[in-house]
Design brief:
Elements: H1 7-41, H2 45-69, H3 81-102, H4 110-130, H5 139-162, H6 168-207, H7 215-237, H8 241-258, H9 263-276, E1 281-282, E2 296-301, H10 303-306, E3 313-314, E4 319-320, H11 332-339, E5 345-348, H12 356-359, H13 378-385, E6 391-397, H14 400-403, H15 405-413, H16 422-426, H17 429-446, E7 453-455, H18 475-499, E8 502-503, H19 510-513, E9 537-538, H20 540-543, H21 558-574, H22 612-626, H23 628-650, H24 662-668
Parallel strand pairs: 1-3, 2-5, 2-6, 4-9, 6-7, 7-8
Helix pairs in contact: 1-2, 1-9, 1-24, 2-9, 3-4, 4-6, 4-9, 5-6, 6-23, 7-8, 7-23, 8-9, 8-23, 11-21, 17-18
Length: 669
């Protein structure tokens, strides 16, 4: 009788131990599943953030349990088999899913699911590997970690030298190899080297006796960590918010890797799901259907008219690889039509990336082309429906893509001074003027003669400031961008005068009038995005592509389009009866100069000389290669932060928890 009395308390302890061991782990998996499912569904942002918050709570419980209980294995330093089996099953499943995706198996969620399974599996393997014989700075950890780090460096150097010139299967193979090195070998090496460093510091503290203090290494680690935190706060105060986020992310990720918990898995998983989450879409309102409208506003042109730069778009217009017109409900043309009473409908044909040959069906033999996902050129679409309504006004914003403004943005954001390549852009403006004249004349013939047509210039995005905190452009680059925008607007005005349509000069100063230019106030309050990271809708292969993350950069946001709407409304109030279009012969005084500079390259894909993008990409690559000392400096800084994290975690006492399944403990008793 007495021998059976302790059984109940022991059983309760076993059940409690099992709950405390398996509960946080199961909760972490549940949170990950919820976040992956919500991210794959393309839910509204509020619902996505709720799923992210739930995953954060689950991760905090699990990581806290790991920090409190440790990862000590069972007797003899053996790693429990269930941990290896779980890691092997998850890793294998992730690899299989990713291979199926690469093989062409349909399934939009396959890349995300495969990446998450692989991530969880590697996390379980790392936990098992780092848990072998805790407390001893094993040489195997150092050797394996150094070998994997060297392998990563070799693959990265080979990719940097060969990848820019590689094509076909070699290009794909190098990308896969580089991805495996950066996302598998590098995390494994950092984990193993971190474990070796933490064990070494703890062993030295233990050998020094119970009275050992923090030590010089620990103090240096705390100082470096505090300095990084202060640096982040300083960057935020200086309006370098994205830089502060990147520095803070590097600090947290390195600390998570050193901590020997699943915190690094949680951070990377959350980042993957946020990148995979498509922005919300809006249904097309009735106002976008011009049929039956009595006062229809027709809006044609490129991204400055379509509304790119906003946080959301109409459904079907932000599908990566299919239709990327990015027509937004916050675009100023939609806002003017919705405000009434001047217009009751809007024919919204503007499309991001549009050039003159995407608008004008008569751009020349073989040059007119339809943008992906669109039924025809913009003028063709207008002709197809113009018989069902009478346009009240036609507005068009065009020419920036023909002039290469998007390419200029890429060049200026890349290393090097883009102002040194100014001739590639300015010498192409005469050709842009001719293409605009042809497009305006074609548009004039597509609508009734009494319908006014207005050419809308581009607002000046950057203020003429001597200093500009938070904008990663030199003074020369900012001045060149301002000059280039002025030259494009002048080209547009000359083409409008020649074609006999109206030019809305007031729009050039819409951002300046409302004090929304970059360099005039903090980037978060400006009307123009400088760098804005947002993915696209559509297939996962498009959402995960870094080439699709920066499309909102250097475009007006909701504040900018509100300012453009106000400027447009004020201009309409000042012109209650728009002047009829001037006869074509009246404006022929605006002619091209006799001696035009010969373009060094063409901005159109059928140019005789090499496309400017090719030359600029070669120049950008040269600048990146020439900046390798800065890359080494960044890597050195990351190494210092990583060493500081090891020093800080080396101050913490080693935990005495157990890896063992509580059920095995019960059997042992």
């Amino acid at each position: 009788m007495h021998g059976g009395e302790p059984a109940a308390p022991v059983g309760r302890r076993d059940r409690r131990g099992m709950l405390m061991w398996w509960g946080p782990r199961a909760l972490f998996v549940v949170g990950a599943v919820v976040l992956v499912v919500e991210s794959s569904r393309g839910v509204p942002l509020l619902e996505l953030y709720a799923a992210l918050g739930f995953f954060g709570v689950c991760s905090a419980v699990f990581v806290g349990r790991q920090l409190g209980s440790g990862h000590e294995p069972g007797p003899g330093g053996r790693v429990p088999r269930w941990l290896l089996r779980a890691g092997g099953l998850l890793t294998t499943s992730g690899v299989v899913v990713l291979v199926l995706h690469l093989a062409g198996v349909e399934g939009d969620a396959l890349p995300l699911v495969g990446s998450v399974l692989l991530l969880l599996g590697l996390g379980w393997f790392i936990e098992a590997w780092r848990g072998v014989e805790p407390g001893r700075p094993r040489r195997a950890l150092l050797l394996w970690g150094a070998a994997l780090m060297a392998l990563t460096a070799v693959v990265a150097v080979i990719a940097a030298l060969v990848l820019p010139e590689a094509k076909g299967g070699l290009y794909v193979g190098l990308l896969i190899g580089l991805g495996a090195a950066l996302f598998v070998c590098l995390p494994l090496s950092l984990n193993l080297l971190s474990e070796w460093g933490v064990r070494l510091l703890r062993a030295r503290r233990s050998a020094a006796g119970p009275g050992a203090g923090v030590g010089v290494i620990g103090i240096l680690g705390l100082v470096v960590t505090a300095a990084v935190v202060l640096c982040c706060l300083w960057l935020v105060q200086r309006d370098w918010v994205l830089s502060a986020v990147l520095v803070a992310a590097a600090l947290f990720l390195l600390a998570a890797i050193v901590s020997n918990t699943h915190a690094d898995v949680a951070l990377v998983l959350a980042g993957l799901c946020l990148l995979a989450a498509a922005p919300p879409e809006h249904r097309h309102p009735q106002a976008l259907d011009p049929a039956g409208g009595q006062r229809v506003l027709v809006a044609l042109g490129d991204s400055y008219m379509s509304g790119e730069g906003a946080s959301s778009y109409f459904e079907g217009t932000d599908d990566g690889g299919r239709n990327e017109c990015r027509r937004s409900p916050s675009a100023y043309a939609v806002g003017v039509a919705a405000a009434g009473p001047r217009f009751d409908r809007v024919l919204f044909l503007a499309c991001s990336g549009a050039r003159t040959y995407n608008v004008n069906p008569r751009s020349g033999a073989g040059r007119s082309r339809v943008q992906p996902g669109e039924p025809g050129t913009q003028i063709d679409q207008l002709k197809g429906v113009v018989s069902s309504f009478h346009p009240a006004l036609v507005i068009v914003a065009l020419g920036g893509n023909d002039a290469g403004f998007a390419i200029l943005g890429e060049a200026c954001l890349a290393p090097g001074d883009c102002e040194t390549r100014r001739s590639l852009f300015l010498n192409n403006l005469p050709k842009v003027r001719q293409d605009l004249i042809a497009t305006y004349r074609s548009l004039r013939q597509a609508v009734p003669a009494d319908v006014p047509i207005v050419a809308v210039p581009y607002p000046q995005p950057i203020a003429a400031a001597g200093r500009c905190s938070g904008v990663a452009l030199t003074k020369a680059e900012r001045d060149f961008i301002r000059t280039f925008v002025e030259q494009i607007d002048t080209t547009m005005r000359q083409a409008a005068d020649t074609a006999g349509i109206t030019y809305m000069a007031e729009m050039k100063d819409s951002f300046a009038t409302h004090r929304l230019q970059l360099c005039e106030r903090r980037k978060g309050a400006a009307g123009v995005n400088f760098l804005d990271i947002e993915t696209v809708n559509g297939l996962a292969a498009q959402r995960f592509s870094p080439a699709k993350w920066l499309h909102n950069s250097l475009h007006p946001n909701e504040r900018g389009h509100a300012a453009m709407r106000d400027t447009f409304t004020a201009w309409l109030d000042a012109h209650p009866e728009l002047l009829p279009p001037a006869p074509t012969g009246q404006a022929q005084a605006t002619v091209l100069p006799a001696a035009e500079p010969e373009p060094l390259c063409g901005m159109t894909d059928d140019a005789v000389n090499a496309h400017c993008r090719v030359q600029l990409r070669a120049w950008e690559l040269e600048q990146v290669r020439g900046g390798w000392p800065w890359l080494l400096l960044v890597l050195f800084g990351l190494a210092v932060v990583w060493a500081a994290c090891i020093a800080v975690f080396g101050l913490l006492p080693g935990s005495g928890g157990s890896y063992r399944d509580p059920r095995s403990s019960a059997r042992a008793r």
